[in-house]
Design brief:
This is TIGR03089 family protein. By secondary structure, this protein is an alpha/beta fold. Helices cover 30% and strands 20% of the residues. β9, α6 and β10 form a beta-alpha-beta unit. α2 packs across α3.
Length: 220
């Protein structure tokens, strides 16, 4: 059962709390992505908007709980927003693409042999037999229709944070260079959000640049 009771800002949300409502009620940054000289920021409200549209996209192809989803994505702001939508659909994530009903990926060629519906993102051109996520997702409605599952409890893992994850006092820094989204990274993201903190994705930064980013975003 999802709890709608307000949570003090200095206390993390507990499993069973409505993380979607928590994010949607915040104008603070939820995702910040540094890639080269570019900085992209999504507030909690905007991240939820992307996620809502993603739930409609996935549902429009008949994918729903208890279907299994295989995720094969780079760590980018877009991947994180799409993954929030996929998690909202309450699909079971599988480690075996052959078992999946749907595959969310930027590497469609690696999965063409599987029978799953293939959702492709981070591509300029997509085969007409596949789902072009980046082209289709923005055409979907902003109004949420699906109930919110226990996103916190579902994401929780006992695995240690990978070396790419740096938990700071004011947020989480993720070394996104050549990283792929996995369960440990996803839990680090959810952990930041349940504490009302941003997730800062950093690509291609040296130590000095990374220190400046941490200072700029006031993460210490």
């Amino acid at each position: 059962m999802i709890s709608l009771a307000p949570t003090p800002s200095n206390d993390p949300l507990e499993p069973g709390s409505d993380l979607i409502a928590h994010l949607a009620g915040s104008a603070r940054p939820a995702i910040i992505h540094y890639s080269g000289q570019e900085r992209t920021e999504l507030s909690g409200r905007v991240a939820v908007n992307w996620a809502t549209k993603t739930t409609h996209l996935i549902d429009s192809y008949g994918i729903a709980t208890p279907d299994e989803l295989f995720v094969d994505l780079p760590v980018t702001w877009r991947s994180v927003a799409l993954m929030l939508g996929a998690a909202w659909c309450d699909l079971t994530c599988t480690a075996e693409p052959a078992d999946a009903t749907a595959i969310l990926t930027d590497r469609p060629d690696a999965h063409m042999a599987h029978a799953a519906e293939i959702f492709v993102t981070h591509h300029q051109t997509v085969d007409a037999a596949l789902v072009d996520v980046d082209d289709e997702v923005l055409s979907h409605a902003d109004q949420a229709l699906l109930p919110v599952p226990d996103l916190i409890g579902n994401a929780a893992t006992q695995a240690d944070h990978p070396l790419s994850v740096d938990v700071r006092r004011g947020g989480v820094v993720l070394d996104a260079q050549d990283q792929r989204l996995d369960t440990a990274i996803w839990w680090a993201i959810i952990e930041a959000w349940r504490r009302s903190q941003p997730v800062v994705l950093v690509e291609g930064a040296d130590a000095a640049q990374r220190a400046r980013i941490i200072d700029t975003e006031r993460l210490d």
